[in-house]
Amino acid sequence: MPQIELTPAERREQRAQAHHLDPVVMVGSDGITPNVRKEIDSALNSHGLIKVRVFNDDRAARELMYQQLAAELNAAPIQHIGKLLVLWRPPLEKEKERSANEDRMAGPKDVKVMKYSKRGGQRPEIKTLRVLGNQRLTSGGQIKRAKPKQKSIKKRQSD
Question: Which range of residues forms the domain containing residue 47?
Answer without folding.
Answer: 8-91
